[in-house]
Amino acid sequence: MNENIRADVVRVIRPDNEHVIIPVSEALELAYQANLDLVEVAPNADPPVCKIMDHGKYLFEKKKKEKEAKKKQHVVVLKELRFRPQTDDHDYEFKKRHAEGFLKEGNKVKATVQFKGRDIIYSDQGKKLLDRLSADLEDLGKVETPAKLEGKRMSMVLAPAKGPGS
User: Fold this and answer.
1) Do 34 and 102 belong to one domain?
2) Can you tell me the distance from the alpha carbon of 122 to that of 125, in angstroms, rounded to the nearest whole number?
3) N or C, where is the chain less crowded by C-beta within 10 Å?
4) Is there a single domain that holds both residue 92 and residue 143?
C-alpha cells in the first residue's frame, strides 16, 4: 500500500475504472490528489496491478460482508437425550418433545439408552425404545445413524428432515 510498493512501474486502475501503466511516483501522486490510497491488488502480475481506492473503507466493507455471511450460516449442534431400558411413558413423551424441539431448530439428536449393571439383558427393550422414537419423529427427522450397541450404551442419531418447512 502507498509507499510500501516496491515496483518501478505499475498498472493502475483509477476510480473511473480506467487502466494506465505509469511509474509508481505518478501513481502515488494521482492517489494523493484524489485523497485515496494506492493499493497493490496483484503483486505477481507483470507489471504489478495497483488500484486507487479508500483502503479503510475497503477493509470496513470486507468485514461487514464477512459478518453478514457469518450471520446467515447455521451451525448444526448435536443434542443428546438419555434413556434407560425401562423408561416410563411419561418420561419418554417428555424427552420426545425435547427431541422434536431440537429437530425443529435444525439440530441433530443423539438418543442414547444407558444400560447399568445387569440391564444389558434388556438390550432388546432399548432397541424397541429407539425404534419407537425414530417412528414417532419420522416426520421431523430421519435416522442418520441406526441404533447400535457400544459397550453399555445403545445410541442412534437423528438428523432434521429437509422438507417444505425447512
Assistant:
1) no
2) 5
3) C
4) yes
Residue 112 CA, distance from chain mean position? 26
165 in a structural domain: no
**53, 116: one domain:** no
> What whole-number distance in Å separates Cα of residue 78 and Cα of residue 56?
40
Residue 166 lies in a domain: no
Alpha carbon 54 to its chain's center: 31
Joined grid coordinates for residue 15: 476510480
For 9, the domain range is: 2-68
Angle at 114 between CA 112 and CA 119, to 5 degrees: 140
Q: Summarize pLDDT for 11-52 with one digit per residue, the tens.
A: 888 777 788 888 888 888 888 888 888 888 888 888 888 888
* Closest C-alpha to 20, from 35, 34, 9: 9
Q: Which residues share a beta bridge with 49?
A: 11, 42
